[in-house]
Amino acid sequence: MEKSIIDAIREKEQLPDSMTDGDIAKEYKGTYTAARAAISRDHKPLDQEINDAMAKVLPFMRKKK
Known about the structure:
65 residues; mainly alpha
């Protein structure tokens, strides 16, 4: 498992620093959490994709933050 995926899992699951990367890789290998972390590393969240597409089509409907 790549270090960036392990870091994403550690952050998302709020795992303690005392847990080694090897422990996380063993525990989360092949899980839904690992898959989500791998996908989120390369892609924007679906909500963000939809918001960006809507802003291109209907710029006046963009949410103001």
